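Internal QA ticket QA-208
Title: Verify multi-chain structure generation after dependency bump
Assignee: T.L.

Test input:
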Amino acid sequence: MLGGRDGDGVALAMRVIVGQARISDAPRLVEITSAHVDSCLYHGQVSLDFAHRLVELGAKVRVPTTLNVGSMDLIHPTLVRDPELATAGRELMAAYVELGCTPTFTCAPYQLPNRPGFGEHIAWAESNAIVFANSVLGARTDRYGDFLDVCAAITGRAPYSGLQTTGARRGTVVFDCRPLGDFMRSEIAYPLLGHHIGAVVGAEIPVLVGIPEEVTEDELKALGAAAASAGGVALFHVVGVTPEAPREFADLPVRRVDVDVLRRVRRDLSTFAGGELDAVSVGTPHASYAECVRLAELVADGPPMKVPFYLSTGRATRERLAGVLTTLEAAGVIVVVDTCTYVTAILSPDWKHVMTNSGKWAHYAPGNLNVSAVLGSLPECVASARAGRVILDS
Amino acid sequence: MIGRTLHPGTATGEPIRLTAPLSFWGGVDEHGRIVDAHHPQCGAILTNRILLMESGRGSSSTSSVLAEQIRARTAPAAIILSRPDPIIPLGALVAAELYNLHLPVVVAPYDDLPLDGWLQVAAISTQAVITWSRFTP
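Actual output:
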């Protein structure tokens, strides 16, 4: 491939893969079964130049490849307020489709059919997708980012290093969550715990003890996304729940987590204390079908919402919603697909106080959008939108 | 001083040493200025400097942000890391492929380098040589 046998586009992609393998001291490459590409989010002219170069050189992906969010909602284009960003974002998304990627435009590819299985080598980008694939599915991906993701898709190969290898997947530190007790049955516990773990461990591999066995994939999604944004967590194990969790971990250092710790995290993640709200944004990472249904149940009856309420989800999930979508939109929920409210110009630049149920959104939005964020559960977000000010249960 | 080359190139500039890790995505604007409010050197300009930092941190979109700065001529002149990091040299590699602009990225124990004066980085695939001079070369 390096010599150009499969074309100049493949040769370029292979130079990137081999260069990365050298830097990470990988002894060889490994064949992958799928890729998830994040390079379709616009970061400047270089994003377009790279995608167009690959298209011009005739490159095509050779494994099933899903696309992460772009800078544009192609189904509701008027939602994006910056026309230049909208044009460039649309052009970039089209270029990746031309390379043979599937236009999924979601940060939660694990909610789609045909997701990878246990032990499969894959090349995924987008930190929340990486941590979910490794931890919950037991597939194997290292942390890949812009440019490398699509080069892996084009060559069908990734460096055999990092979390592709068995030895690198063992837990390194235990988080004893048993003191949290029933608090782990509340949805807000998961983004808070994830943020705490990410902030404490950096890129280590946490082993969680004391998580209820009936924990949902949506809760694990929220935990992983927060851990991957507050730190560099790309794999966690939940004893009794996730497929590679250890049975023996007595030799690992232990950190104890109690309710006071998570209360402090909640205060730290909320950059304003309360009062008037400008908007609410939920669905980061993209809301699952079950989460959309739950929101519809919460908003179906009751007073109207006084501030704009955004729900980000995948276009495939939106298509399944049918009557649920009607209920959401009738209640005033603004459904966003293909992108997310914290990576493009959807919220008004005049809004300063925004509520979310996402630890990841609360972590990134203040820097990206110059807003203050407050974290609450989904019912608290709905109650607050109806009141026009922050309403917290506890 | 001899280092390991992560991406080849030659550069000369005044050094700036970061006292805390920095993510280019969300941490540096298009003019090469540190805008991460939590960073102790927020406000510093990295353009055309020899950037000394432990390692990259945070988002994998850093490769895009660095490649875009190289294209726009607002990137550092060279980057010297104390630990290998795949994300930063990837940005340099893509800029070299697309624009034929070469920003050297090397790993070296830079603690011993003086921070006044000028540094010259000459990185070829087998090794990188870093030299110091008191005055503008």
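Spot checks passed. The mean pLDDT of chain B is 92.
Status: verified.
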